Amino acid sequence: MYKVAKASEYLAITGIGIRDIKIAKKGWVFPGQSCAIIEVSPVNYTFQVQAMSAEKLPFVLPAVFTIGPRVDDEESLLKYAKLIAPHDKHSDHVTELVQGIIEGETRVLAASMTMEQIFKGTKEFKQEVFEKVQLELNQFGLIIYNANVKQLVDVPGHEYFSYLGQKTQMEAANQAKIDVAEAKMKGEVGAKLRQGQTLQNAAKIDAETKVISTQRQGQGRKEEIKVKTEVTVYENEREAEVAKANAELAKKKAAWSKEAQVAEVEAAKAVALRDAELQGEVEKMNGMTRTQKLKAEFLSKASVEYETKVQEANWDLYKKQKAAEAALFEKEKEAEAKKAMAEAEFYARQQAADGELYAKQKEAEGLMAVAQAQGQYLRTLLGAVGGNYAAVRDYLMITGGMFQDIARLNAQAVQGMQPKISVWNNGSDGSEGAAAGGSAMKEVAGIYRMLPPLFKTVHEQTGMLPPSWMGSLPDSTNPPNN
To answer: Source organism's superkingdom (predicted)?
Structure first.
């Protein structure tokens, strides 16, 4: 029988002459063979996936997946024909299979992310779920044609997203109240400022006339002092440039290291400074909000009197300030010139120190090279004599002249010595020895004969005499008769 499948169908033929399963759009079905029609159109699966974030906050993720067999891959069609096609695509078996895969991968992924990451990165979250689910569906020959993840929904009893919406509404309402209060404050302050502005302008014009006259006189003196100071600074700069040129090489070597360290310090200080500035601005704004209302009430009455006194005080202050600025400018230029001279001297000293350090390093490297050469020489000698340390030691003593030095030192040690040799004769001869050979007092007599020369030697070497009860030595001026 010849069978033809529809556009959304395939034929799965098994039986005689077919090793596994034959997938085709049309073909002959012979006796002993079985043919099943496989529907390959995709199906929509709608789920309410319950998951929990990394903060252990439960939520519901509504999702719709369009899933069907992969028709462009014959191996995937075979898997689908074996595992899924025997069941109805709308049956509970297939639905539970797909739902289990989607819920499992969604819950695992959600558990590794915070609620904020899931809410703000819905697109990335959907893509990761899509990829992980597709990996599991590949083993069934299925493919996801479309995946639609809807907005997250609160689980009953856990109204996280509801509270988040209420928080946003309250923040907007509070900000609107703040804007209205600021606009009202600006209107009240502006009205009070306009009333006092007329009186302020009149007093300001009179004060400016006096200030301009004093400024003319101060500028003349300031220019004269400035010219003298610049001449002195120019001369000092020329001298500093000569010294600086000599130390330029050392300066360039140290510049990079210095700049890197300064940049790190400046960055750290800038962060701390900016943090302090922001903290100060916050405190300043809080104080300004509290004080602006009170200031507006008293500003009108006090502004005229205040401006008059301020202008008179500014008149005196300006004269003193200009004189102080002129003196300060002169001292600053002198300090800059001294600083330039000090820096040039510092770089010159640093260059000399670097040169001395380099010489010490080269001397140490030379000593190290000599030590390494001597070590290599000893290893060569040791290898030549087959590892005999005694032979190497004797060779080095011979080549180093150590034996000659030892002989010379021994000769110098005994040079000038006058040894004294005493010969004693106790009067014994062979006949007397023979006569006393059998006597029991022979040994005692020998000991007594040995005592006189022993006492004599001790006396000559140490100056000590034997005790009187043992005897006395003969006078050294009268030698004994032997």
So the answer is: Eukaryota
